[in-house]
Amino acid sequence: MSGENIVVDTSGIIAMYDEAYPEHAPLTEIANATTGLLVVSPLIVAESDYMLATRLGPAAARQFAEDVSVGAYELAEWTQDYHAAALAIVSGFGDDDYIGMADASIVVLADRYRTTNVMTLDQRHFRKLKPLWGVSHFTLLPFDA
């Protein structure tokens, strides 16, 4: 997996910046070991900024912003077509187990970067979501590593 791209969810980012999470060490190890890209959507960047600032404080949010700005993460382009594709994914699920645009953006970017690797703690949603090109499931990191 070291050369494969990984699309990163907000929960994965929070766990990598918060040492209190039991997944902190395995996620950090995976991130440091990969020679592929750690891909984030602008939706995930915004959500992570808010979550880091409210949970860990402004310094953590600034550190993440700096890490994105220096290329530790691949900040993916987000177009109207990608947004429409994400909306189609959201629309395919009911209100009882809402899949938001941030999660749907990960599915769209996994397709664009041709990977099944998703760094997330959100097994409830990502075990239901399927890759867009016919692969049967996502590889959820760190759980499926």
UniProtKB/TrEMBL annotation:
Residues 6-129 form the PIN domain. It comes from the Bacteria. Coiled coil: none annotated. Keywords: Hydrolase, Magnesium, Metal-binding, Nuclease, Toxin, Toxin-antitoxin system. Transmembrane segments: none annotated. InterPro entries: PIN-like_dom_sf, PIN_dom, VapC_family. Its EC number is 3.1.-.-. GO terms for molecular function: hydrolase activity; magnesium ion binding; RNA nuclease activity; toxin activity. Toxic component of a toxin-antitoxin (TA) system. An RNase. Belongs to the PINc/VapC protein family. This is Ribonuclease VapC. The gene is vapC.
